[in-house]
Design goal:
19% strand, 7 strands, seven-stranded mixed sheet, globular, alpha/beta, Glutaredoxin, 2 domains, Thioredoxin_ResA/DsbE_sf
Length: 187
């Protein structure tokens, strides 16, 4: 029997991982862990490829029920992260976004819109201890901020240019991102 396990340990490990991936209670943490391992810092979009947002008119609702409009951030540096609580790549990048929010909340306007119910969002934030501002969609975002995939994150300059557009998970708490934000805030 000992010889059997010794010769087949890799097959047993492989099947054990497959079994763990079948159940959501173990699948999501594994997906989050692997996603964090392979996430890199996003890159700035080349100047000639940066899109100018036609309008920042986008109505959102806080999870407390207060209506706000993205246009109130016109002239400020903005970070928008489209996400969901059921999305492992979204969950994987949340700690790095929280760290960025902690350090830049007074110089960058952060928006974390989701289409989920407010109770689900509140429970998730409370459980994880996140303090960044979460919103619910009141209407569709401007065309340049729409995405078929999440997470989708946009960093917008004071002039309304999309400086970073990242679809998929990333490590947002990096020197590269902080350098970009510092430059945008100083402009």
């Amino acid at each position: 029997m000992k010889n059997f396990f010794h010769k087949n340990w890799s097959n047993i490990l492989f099947f054990g991982i497959i079994v763990l991936l079948i159940f959501p209670q173990t699948r999501v943490p594994i997906q989050v862990f692997v996603t964090r391992l392979i996430s890199f810092s996003p890159s700035e979009t080349a100047q000639e490829d940066q899109q100018l947002i036609n309008s920042l008119d986008w109505s959102l609702v806080t999870i407390e029920g207060e209506s706000i409009n993205l246009a109130s951030s016109e002239g400020n540096v903005i970070l928008i992260n489209l996400w969901a609580t059921w999305c492992p790549p979204c969950i994987a990048e949340m700690p790095s976004l929280q760290n960025l929010y902690n350090d830049y909340k007074y110089s960058v306007d952060f928006y974390f819109p989701s289409s989920e119910e407010k109770e689900i969002l509140q429970m998730f934030l409370q459980k994880k201890g996140y303090t960044f501002p979460v919103y619910r969609f009141n209407e569709q975002p401007p065309l340049q901020l729409q995405s078929q995939s999440i997470p989708a994150t946009f960093v917008i300059s004071k002039k309304g240019e999309i400086v970073i557009k990242k679809i998929g998970p990333a490590d947002w708490d990096s020197e590269k991102v902080r350098g970009i934000l510092d430059r945008l805030v100083a402009e």
